[in-house]
Amino acid sequence: MQRPIKKSWVFLFLILSLLAIFTASIFSDIAVEFNDINLEVEIREMLNNYSKPIYRSKLMDLYELDLSGKHITDLSGLEHARNLEILNLADNNIKDVSPLSTLTSLHILNLQNNEIASLEAINFDSINHLNLIELYLDNNFIGSKEGESNHDSGIEAISNYHNIEILSLNFNFVSNISPLLNLSKMRVLKLRGNQIHNIDGLGACSRLENLDLSRNNIHDISTIKELFNLKKLNLRENDIEDISPLQNLTQLEYLNLHTNTKIKSVIPISNLTNLTTLILRNVPISGQVWVFKDMEKLSRLNVRNCKISDFSIIAELMAKGILQDNEENLVFATINLRDNELIVNNNDPLASIRPYWENVTNREPTFLPHFSGLVKAPIFSQKSGFFTDQFTLYLSSENSGLDIYYTLDGSDPNPDHVHAPKSLYQKTFKYSEPLLIKSRSGDKNIYSTINTTHGDNAVPYMPPKSEVFKATVVRAIAYDHENDTQSEIVTQTYFVDENIHTLYSTLAVVSLTADYDALFGDEFGILNTGLGENIYYSPKTRVPANLEFFETDRSIGFQGQYEIKLHGNTSVANPQKGLHVIANSWVGEELIQYPIFKDSLSKANQLTEFKRFILRAWGTALNWPVFFSDAYHQTLLADSDLDIQDYRPVVLFINGEYWGLYEMREAIKNLEYFQSHYYNWQPVPLDILELGTIDFIDEGDPQHWFAMLKYVENNDIQDPDVYAYVQSQMDIDNFILYMAHCVFMGKKDWPIHNEAMWRPRTVDGKWRWIQFDMDQGLRPSVDAMYDMVNHVTNEEIHPHPLFLQLFKNDTFRHLFFNTFADLSNTYFLTSVEVDHFLAMANELDPYIPEFQARWNYDFDWEENKALALDLIKNRRTRRISQMLEHFDELSGVMEVTLLTDATMGKNAINSITITSDTPGVTDPNYWQGNYFQGIPINIQAIPNPGYRFVNWEGSIELDSDLQSITIHTNQSFSLKANFEPINN
Predict the structure, then answer these.
(1) Residue 215 lies in a domain
(2) pLDDT the model gives residue 538
(3) Do both 661 and 686 map to the same domain?
(4) Residues 616, 662: contact at Cβ < 8 Å?
(5) Contact 468, 657 (CB under 8 A)
(6) At residue 368, what are phi and psi to the nearest 5 degrees?
(7) Quick one: 592 and 612 in the same domain?
(8) Potential cystine with 112: which of 43, 79, 90, 287 (Cβ 3.0-4.6 Å)?
(9) C-alpha pair distances (Å), 480 with each of 175, 442, 475, 554, 678
(10) How far separated are the first and last CA of the chain, in Å rounded?
(11) pLDDT, tens digit, for every residue of 291-346?
């Protein structure tokens, strides 16, 4: 009987034990508290739990979390997700990673773009026991701090991850990589865009297969010779002279030496025969092009601007099927040959590669140029122009042995197309008799009926409502059958109509002519967007086009062969597309030699040469009250210190057919804009950055920018010395002007997005801001009611981080308030805005009906103008009200009245000098403006030549004998500056 009793006790004991464990687990599974609401929202979304408590046990069910871009700062609570293996925290602002210390299963961690000033600051040491395999820390501020020795690398904490295989530290401030040299299991190491000079010892990381050291300052790469397992190596934009350490890295499949302009010889790469990608742009190859001859696996070759003059080796590779498309093997070749040396000498320097060029999917240039000098071009009896009567056109050649071929549809003349046209739009004729050039009234629409958009778009394609006006475009070549060579193409455009002198009489006209394949073809037609799944065709694709620019007096301003590509982002998906016109000596003209903006108010009126310009379309903005909003807002400050895109409206014809109203605009985010405006075309190196874009770097590098941001973040901006240093790094006045302009005008798709800066890469080079893309200011949903001040200062909406940091400084803050007030009393006065708007609208009024008919738009132009004017008339009052609402320091507005005798002198207040030329000034003798109460303002009396200042008189107590005074008051006041002749 005893054994059964013992068994019963044992069974009971087990039951009680299990019950105790179960009870303990219930009581220990307590609810998790999150300090960060954004983190909690994402976890609830992941667990499909929107109201009940979140228990620890539920977090144990999480194995992978993507929390990127969720505005998370505090990770508290995440320590209970102990089974997490993959965690993506990119694009947040994480302050402390110590809650991750319990995640012992974590092996992939992404902390890209978290504004991490240092690993120490986020307690990175607390997680150095984790078995991380992949770690991503790109786009932070990690590295040596100011004043630290090179031994303090800022990345010591990473040295403990001995099992790390993938480490990415792109775009930080790393200068000393020694802590990484013991990470022997690394397969991938990315250090792009740091401050690395010395890579000695990196050869110890012998398992490396992928190494990115681009955009650093590396000179000696000898240690790389030990990395025999490398398959991908990026050394772009360094300071390398000797590449012999690469000669035995025979497993390399990808090699990028882009812009290592000091390389003395490329012979060491001649035996890297496993290369499939080779990028040598801007490397002086010259006569060493033979190094490619055994690279029979190449499918991508970039030798742009490599001083190559002999292309025969490349042609031999292509003849073998190398660097050629092979659809069966899914190989689509890429070649860039631009900007090399084209030595004609009575021979076509590109003849050897022409037979193979079209079998390269990604090729630059898309179409190989033809050259003048091989065969003399045909002569036209009449140049382009405007004619009331028909006339006979004669084509001739100085050499009677040459044949002349011509087209009338805009296509490139081609003798092979005479009897076998390539398409309905590519018909070539052999010239045998004079051509009758007459009015094309009654001709059917051709190009304007082609659907240029294949996708769901805000503005769908519609054919023209009626017949569009047409010009006759004649393109001709002289052809030498014996040598199979041709002349360059000559293009002339003839506008014939009995009323031609009243058509487009106040606007310039642009005739753009290009082959059907370049504009509308299925493969490369840049206007034919939306084929396949992508509604945007590649905006980088450039094609050749002939442009003729006719001034309002119908004289030809400029003409020639240029390159064009699409301009804009989403707008390229719309039927009317913008175009970027670029002068390129490889294709035709080296520069656009004409003062395009000679009558404007901006500094562009001084330029007589341009490298590029934009033909901006009104695709996206057509749903808004007026479609010239961007040009309106920019040119309002045309004569200010801002860098803007100047504007003049034009009428565009494409292949002879009316294409509509366009804006001819300066192209601004490029090297040539600043070199022409500021440095008289001298090749001054620049940094040009565009925030919120994938590329980010338009020119130079971001190191100076990141260093300045880091300095502002880590120092007390209220300290006068700190503020003075920041003033030496950026143009404060320019930044404040830019900020005030964006805020007042309602640039809602900003900041960070649609924001760009530039600086000369000199010791004293300061950052300045670039103004562009201001359509939002007159967009229906972004009316005067929208609170732009809150938009840019509220950290929960879309704040400007640099502005908020600088705003803590009294000097900066007062300067911003006064600049805002100065602008509100001049450029931003309602009367000034209205006059500017009406001037632009009135210029377009006569041409709107034809534009609407061309694109089949039915908007009410007059009603839309009224909507925009209503917004403008209310904007100033609303913006000042928003300033008062959000800044407690501003208690109200006071009125300042300044009087003088303008024949003897003038008044100045802050940045305004009051003259008859000042926007909004009707009488310089008597001026009134509104300023913020309690903010110090500076007033100055400026005598005219032959006069001197006597004193002030007015309603406020001051030292009346001081010519320049600072007034700090809450009361409205008036002052009169008295002057007298010097000889009194």
Answers:
(1) no
(2) 61
(3) no
(4) yes
(5) yes
(6) -70, 140
(7) yes
(8) 90
(9) 61, 37, 17, 35, 47
(10) 137
(11) 999 999 999 999 999 999 999 999 999 999 999 999 888 889 999 999 999 887 77
Does 984 have pLDDT greater than 90?
no
Tokens at 810, concatenated: 């009294």
What percent of the chain lies above the pLDDT cut of 90? Answer: 80
- Residue-wise pLDDT for 234-280, tens only, equals 999 999 999 999 999 999 999 999 999 999 999 999 999 999 999 99
The rounded mean pLDDT for the chain is 92
Residues 476 and 552 in one domain: yes
Q: Do 398 and 542 belong together in one domain?
A: yes
Same domain? For 101 and 115 the reply is: yes
Cα Rg, the chain, nearest whole Å = 34
Strands, sheet with 686-691, edge to edge from the N-terminal-most edge strand: 697-699, 686-691, 755-760, 768-770
Contact status, residue 196 vs residue 235, Cβ threshold 8 Å: no
Question: Is it true that the peptide bond before 751 is cis, omega within 30 degrees of 0?
Answer: yes
Which pLDDT score, from 0 to 100, does residue 518 have? 94
The 3-class secondary structure across 900-932, one letter per residue, is ECCCCEEEEECCEECCCCCCCCCCCCEEEEEEE
Last residue of a domain, one of 155, 172, 196: 196
Length of the chain equals 984
Domain around 607: 384-418+433-666
> CA 517 to CA 357: how far, in whole Å?
15
In a domain, 201, yes or no: no
Structure tokens at 274: 């496993």
Phi (first) and psi of residue 690, to 5 degrees:
-125, 115
State the average pLDDT over residues 885-911. Answer: 97
Q: In the chain, how long is the greatest CA-to-CA distance?
A: 137
What letter does residue 840 receive in the DSSP assignment?
H
Cβ neighbour number for residue 262 with a 10 Å cutoff:
12
401-442 pLDDT tens trace: 899 999 999 999 999 999 999 999 999 999 999 999 999 999
CA-CA distance, 229 to 836, in Å (whole number)? 65
CA distance 451 to 385: 29
In angstroms, the CA 796 to CA 790 distance is: 10
- Are 60 and 189 members of one domain? yes
pLDDT per residue as tens digits for the range 824-870: 999 999 999 999 999 999 999 999 999 999 999 888 999 999 999 99
Q: Who contacts 310 (Cβ-Cβ below 8 Å, separation ≥6)?
A: 287, 289
Regarding whether 274 and 234 lie in a shared domain, the answer is yes
Beta-carbon contacts of residue 22 (< 8 Å; ≥ 6 apart): none
What's the token pair of residue 321? 């099927």
Residue 480 backbone dihedrals phi, psi, to 5 degrees: -105, 100
Whether residue 411 contacts residue 487, with contact meaning beta carbons closer than 8 Å, is answered with no
Q: Identify whether 557 is part of a domain.
A: yes
Single-letter amino acid code for the residue at 906 = K
Count: domains in the chain: 6
Whichever domain contains 182, its CATH number is 3.80.10.10
Q: Each residue of 659-692: pLDDT tens digit? A: 999 999 999 999 999 999 999 999 999 999 998 7
Q: Looking at residue 840, what is its pLDDT?
A: 97
812 and 938 assigned to the same domain: no
373 is a domain residue: no
End residue of a domain, out of 143, 178, 196: 196
pTM of the model: 0.88
DSSP string, 5-44: HHHHHHHHHHHHHHHHHHHHHHHH-PBPP-S-HHHHHHHH
Give the pLDDT of residue 782.
53
Whether 786 shows a pLDDT value over 50: the answer reads yes
Query: Whole-angstrom Cα distance, residue 260 to residue 892?
Result: 58
Rounded (5°) CA angle 88-94-97: 80
* Residue 39, both tokens: 């983190």
How far apart CA 112 and CA 142 sit, in angstroms, is 11
Structure letter (DSSP) for residue 315:
H
